[in-house]
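Consider the tokenized backbone below.
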């Protein structure tokens, strides 16, 4: 036994060398991820800037122009930006109360049933493909819009339909993150509140929700990020009208992502339209990075508050 242990010790790599190997492997992984991110940002920025640097399109008019008609060399991205923000904000407003109420039920009211039955059911929604949500929106939600609003809804496709579909899609993400946020609040906070004579709902409202607010904000931003970048399901129910500004929630519209997917198929590489579509991608990437920055700021503020 002693000889076998000595042989194993001789074959084992020295601890110092093993540490260096581990550090080198993990460092290489970090460098690879950083390189991929930097390459993606550089590629999108390089192509997107050509619209303004080479093709002579004014950046201000690109952002504020109200008509996106590439065939007439009219590249106003404002209708697309408005469409993206409209469906994102509306879907968040629809999904947040349901997600928050579900999270309170799971953590504070029925934790056993919530953890064993309800939460797994909610997480199943994450695995449903986007095209399925789009088909449901196309056949059910658009038809509901026509029956509720009549002729003013047209075909039923519009911003409101897109927002409802997106709300269903982001609901599992916001719900799951909200559950984790409420569950992370120490039980000592609840016990202290009960000791002061507060009811359960007073404890939830004044103690639990306030303590979990930074994490809940992160859940909201994550849901908005998911909604802002969604393409296929929105494209099937929003109408795909890119040429002009929508005048209401029932009007057909387009988003940055739907314009990208529909335009790149017909754009000639190196043309003004091609570069303008890359500029839309640059705006989309900038907004996603902004959402991520907000998440980090909220998380840092919450950590500082807890300290």
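A designed sequence for it:
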């Amino acid at each position: 036994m002693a000889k076998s242990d000595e042989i194993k010790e001789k074959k084992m790599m020295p601890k110092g060398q093993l540490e260096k190997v581990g550090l080198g492997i993990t460092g290489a992984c970090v460098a690879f991820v950083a390189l991929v991110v930097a390459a993606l940002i550089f590629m999108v920025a390089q192509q997107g800037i050509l619209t303004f640097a080479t093709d002579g399109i004014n950046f201000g008019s690109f952002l504020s122009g109200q008509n996106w008609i590439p065939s007439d060399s009219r590249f106003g991205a404002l209708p697309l930006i408005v469409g993206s923000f409209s469906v994102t904000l509306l879907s968040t407003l629809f999904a947040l109360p349901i997600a928050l109420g579900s999270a309170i039920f799971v953590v504070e009211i029925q934790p056993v049933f919530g953890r064993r039955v309800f939460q797994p059911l909610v997480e199943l929604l994450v695995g449903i493909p986007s095209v399925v949500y789009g088909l449901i929106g196309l056949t059910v939600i658009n038809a509901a819009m026509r029956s509720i609003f009549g002729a003013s809804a047209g075909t039923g496709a519009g911003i409101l339909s897109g927002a409802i579909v997106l709300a269903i899609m982001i609901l599992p993400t916001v719900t799951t993150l909200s559950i984790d946020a409420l569950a992370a609040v120490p039980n000592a906070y609840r016990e202290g509140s009960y000791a002061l004579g507060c009811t359960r709902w007073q404890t939830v409202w004044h103690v639990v929700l306030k303590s979990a607010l930074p994490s809940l904000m992160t859940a909201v931003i994550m849901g908005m990020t998911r909604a802002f970048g969604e393409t296929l399901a929105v494209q099937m129910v929003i109408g795909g009208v890119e040429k002009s500004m929508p005048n209401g929630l029932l009007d057909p519209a387009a988003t940055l992502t739907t314009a990208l997917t529909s335009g790149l198929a017909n754009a000639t590489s190196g043309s003004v339209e091609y570069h303008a579509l890359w500029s839309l991608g640059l705006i989309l990437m900038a907004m996603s990075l902004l959402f991520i920055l907000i998440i980090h700021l909220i998380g840092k503020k919450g950590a500082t508050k807890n300290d």
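Strands lie at 68-69, 74-75.
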